[in-house]
From TrEMBL, chains A, B:
EC identifiers of the protein: 3.1.3.71
Domain of life where this protein originates: Bacteria
Catalytic activity: (2R)-O-phospho-3-sulfolactate + H2O = (2R)-3-sulfolactate + phosphate
Keyword Hydrolase recorded: yes
Matching InterPro entries: ComB-like, ComB-like_sf
Molecular function GO labels: 2-phosphosulfolactate phosphatase activity; magnesium ion binding; sulfopyruvate decarboxylase activity
SUPFAM superfamilies reported for this sequence: ComB-like
Annotated keywords: Hydrolase, Magnesium
Family: Belongs to the ComB family.
Species annotation: Pedobacter cryoconitis
PANTHER family per record: 2-PHOSPHOSULFOLACTATE PHOSPHATASE-RELATED (PTHR37311)
Record-linked Pfam families: 2-ph_phosp
Designated name of the protein: Probable 2-phosphosulfolactate phosphatase
Cofactor(s) named in the record: Mg(2+)
């Protein structure tokens, strides 16, 4: 079967891709998709991504946890933001979380408009994600959330890690896949050192969340693949 | 002085950059900006970039050469397209050329709307371009023309070559600069082999223009920097 893998380097470019029959993997390593993977893996019942901070309030008084991050910080008055340490089993098991973030939830909303299926990727579930993607007879678009529509290193490197695992099973790939894979191969022996070349990581240091960065760069501590069903992210039943 | 260098990976992202006080370097290695550099270096009086094929016709009967390329091929009825071999001294010295290409002239038109100054870069004039940029007290945006608004390898690698020469003199750079420079460092020992990983190079092989590719990957055979003055590209007087 002819299959195509492509990397969309920022959400601003998504209209260039025909994704009606594709699986779109949304990637926002620091920190939205890492925390979503971790939260669902820790037994959160669902995570509802919303684009605007104000939309979270529509879900108040329903017993949901409300999570909002803007520019790397928790929005005042919300339960938490997108630090993975807020998504432990103790805090989220059995709960539904309404979440809005600067970049990740925006990418999700763009993808869901047209994609055949939308799943969530992070280093935390890299192996599980790739194992499942290999079994699907679909084209794959790796959608980097970036930073305010700009390219960023950490999402691109993760996309490259996925390309690196999947490419042999795909007949077509684009230039962005080649670049992402090569950057991943440069970075993989010390992801943290490489990510520190990133402007976003300077923001992270300024925000004093170096522990979050370290956490998000762990590989394969989660087996769960969050998938969008209706307006909710839930655990995909892979049958693997 | 605080100076910033950034890489805009495709023209579709240009609105994200504040370029009102910047020098924008337009890059379309295969083949528009390579041919523009070569043509001006060979004594073409001016090259007038236009966005649409039909616009070229407005310049008919003025004694100009009319050049039009779409999807890698010369448009029927035009003098030539964007092969560098059409821009030799014999063919263009003293002449004015009206040129439209699939990607390069579009990027030029987007840049000129807002940029402080627009110049043309290619491997052919890499050293001359970098030497001049170092003497300017301006921010620099390296604008990759890409392929129909998508990322491509060859333009990004050239941007990385410029970053590699300039970075020590700049205080700020973005993630795309880091990535472009690292890809350039991977590619530099054999640019052609690396470019062959590119989907665009497959198009080039299909178009039977491998000699053009080889030509465009030569470094520093031209000393000229084309600059946009009004609606014309002419040789920049650098005083270097």
């Amino acid at each position: 079967m002819q299959r195509k893998i492509e990397v969309c380097l920022t959400p601003a470019l998504i209209d260039l891709y025909a994704i009606e029959n594709s699986i779109v993997v949304v990637i926002d390593i620091l920190r939205a998709t890492s925390s979503i993977v971790y939260g669902i893996d820790n037994g959160a019942q669902a995570i509802i991504p919303v684009a605007q901070v104000e939309e979270c309030l529509n879900y108040a008084d329903k017993g949901y946890l409300l999570a909002a991050e803007r520019n790397g910080e928790v929005v005042e008055g919300y339960d938490f933001g997108n630090s993975p340490f807020s998504y432990t089993a103790e805090k989220v098991a059995g709960k539904t979380i309404v979440l809005t973030t600067t970049n990740g939830t925006k990418a999700l909303h763009l993808a869901r408009k047209r994609a055949s299926q939308v799943v969530i990727g992070a280093f935390l579930n890299l192996e599980a994600l790739c194992a499942w993607l290999k079994t699907q007879e679909k084209d794959v678009l790796l959608l980097c959330a970036g930073w305010k529509d700009q390219f960023n290193l950490e999402d691109t490197i993760f996309a490259g890690a996925v390309v690196n695992q999947l490419r042999s099973g795909f007949t077509h790939y684009d230039d962005a896949s080649v670049a992402a894979e090569d950057l991943y191969l440069l970075a993989k022996d010390d992801l943290r050192a490489y990510i520190h070349k990133s402007s976003h990581s300077h923001r992270m240091v300024a925000l004093n969340i170096e522990e979050d960065v370290k956490f998000c760069l762990q590989t394969n501590i989660c087996q769960t693949i969050p998938v969008l069903e209706g307006d909710q992210l839930v655990a995909l039943k892979t049958g693997l």
